[in-house]
Fold this protein.
Amino acid sequence: MTEKLYYIDSHIREFDAMVISCEPDGDHFHVELDRTAFFPEGGGQCADTGTLSSVAVSDVQEVCGRIVHYCASPLTVGESVHGSLNWGKRFQNMQSHSGEHIVSGLVHNRFGFENVGFHLGADGMIVDFSGYVTPDELREIELAANKIIWQNRKITAFFPAPDELIRYNYRSKLELTENVRLVEIDGVDLCACCAPHVKETGEIGMIRIFESQRRKDGVRIRMLAGKNALEDYLVKEREALRISNLLSAKVGDISSAAERILTERDALSYKLRGYELRELDGIISEASTERERFVRFFDSLPQEDMLRIIKGVAPFCKSVAAVFSGSDEGGYKFIIASEHIALREKLNSIRPLFTIKGSGSDKMVQGSIFGSRKDIENAVGGW
């Protein structure tokens, strides 16, 4: 049985141990020690990483009561090794997990809702609650959680005896009866948990709740704590300052400045659209006389404008009205209409000459075509 040093002291970063087994498994080795500070994945918290002497440890799992270290190279049974944790990762995990306990405890105490799902990932924590909490209520929970951090309350973990366990009112997702480890945040929460935590709430630093989403009868929130929360704040502060400089507005006024610019943009877009429609109507007006055919190429014309021209011009054409938009390099979108010839047959007749995607009816075909403008004009001009 491996001695679990992370239960004795969650802040142990280095330790010495003896290798009691080493088994190959594909491109890595399963190593067991007589004692370890490496926490195996569990309770929603990912496994520790680090080294055993000079050998990298990429994962740690508890398998049938055995704590297995996934090592890059073999270690000799009976030898002494020096373990070193990736402390930055471990401490961030503890900050995050302890922060989640505070928030879950506050939600449970105020609303009676249970934490029914928890995932701690690289981009933050996802927590599911059994009832709905409004955004305003979550802001209040966030403030209360940070006040608990400022008060630097004690966090303790212990294994009560089975006959004592029934005296404790604790949160748990599972019905547990033996080897139950309780994590207590003074005056805030008591929860069954197998993961290591910080010793005082002040070590968490800060808690941020970013968003919430209704899920069935409950709510899912995304939150950050500790270093992750600080780094997120710094990124957003940098971006806010950059936007402030771009908009020539104070940071506190950037949303108002952005709204003003969007309003001005919409007004200009509306005005520009008016000019575009007048230009299109001018093209249609010039072509609205009886003619053999109409073939026109544009650099960039929206589908709706291509269709507007076709509908306006096609009734005056004895053969076809065709509009293309694009370039020789990137290909052309096309719409072709005719009241007098079978367009699907015509389109199929030139497929061997070009790469064509699209089809339609005998009266109208549309899609994309790849080829030179000159070759396309020559082909369609013969219809």
